[in-house]
Specification:
Number of strands: 9
CATH superfamily: Metal-dependent hydrolases
CATH topology: TIM Barrel
Shape: globular
Order of helices and strands: EHEEHEEHEHEHEHEHH
CATH architecture: Alpha-Beta Barrel
Oligomer: single chain
CATH class: Alpha Beta
Helix content: 25-40%
Strand order of the largest sheet: 3-5-6-7-8-9
Length: about 240
């Protein structure tokens, strides 16, 4: 009789390094399409700590006319939340900005909420790239900021023109991968592009980008690249230690 030995697949939740810092999430309650209330925020954070994540830079959306968050709103919400949560994790706040004409106008006002004082998490519309994309990148750099493009693998209009990723890197963008992309959560095409970006050395940082418990649990799945490559990307986030 032939006995087959099947190697257990490694899940994402098995490889988070000690001290991993999640730099992209929508955990703060009531600010965007993420957690709706305090209890949900606390449940999400508590579950993520069981995966070995204990430090979070939360990044509520800032979208003109949709989520009109600002420094005072995000700071006050963070303070109220931190005054109530239990020990077991550390939390600070930044923001995720949609690049559009309103964002470009705000760059010079020196009021951007950054990951660390200079790195700014930005995203694009999923429908089409903004006409002001490259001018916004240039303006950010002019004022001393470093743009960190959230989930570049998720912009499907770039999937058939991969040279755009190279152009954005040359323009000075850092890339932040959504870890859920590696589990196929957003579809096979996004998963493949994520693999390619990692293989080409284009990914600088990573984040969960969790909005709810469903996405938290989806992290507990096998991933689609070698463990060595994913560990390197995860370790890069130590740059934002606080």
């Amino acid at each position: 009789m032939i006995h087959f030995i099947f190697k257990k697949k490694t899940n994402l939740t098995d490889v988070f390094p000690e001290g991993y810092i999640d730099i992209h999430s929508h955990i703060l309650p009531g600010l965007d399409d993420g957690a709706k209330h305090f209890e949900e925020s606390l449940a999400i954070l508590s579950r993520l700590t069981t995966f070995g994540i204990s430090k979070f830079i939360t990044t509520p959306h800032i979208m003109h006319g949709v989520y009109d968050n600002c420094l005072s709103i995000i700071t006050s919400t963070t303070s109220r939340f931190k005054s109530n949560y239990n020990e077991g994790f550390s939390l600070k706040s930044a923001a995720e900005y949609l690049i559009d004409e309103h964002f470009e106008k705000s760059i010079a006002q020196d009021s951007l909420i950054t990951l660390d004082g200079k790195h700014v998490l930005v995203e694009l519309s999923y429908a089409m790239p903004p006409l002001c994309l490259h001018s916004a990148i240039r303006k950010l750099k002019h004022f001393g900021y470093v743009p960190v493009l959230a989930h570049p693998e998720r912009y499907r209009y770039y999937h058939k023109t991969p040279i755009v990723y190279q152009e954005l890197k040359h323009a000075g963008c850092k890339f932040q991968l959504n870890l859920l992309s590696l589990t196929g959560y957003y579809g096979k095409s996004t998963q493949k592009v994520a693999q390619n970006l990692i293989s080409e050395g284009f990914i600088d940082y990573s984040g969960t980008d969790v909005h709810n418990m469903q996405q938290v649990e989806a992290l507990n799945k096998p991933f689609s690249i070698t463990e060595k490559l994913i560990r390197r990307i995860l370790e890069n986030n130590m740059f934002f230690d606080f």
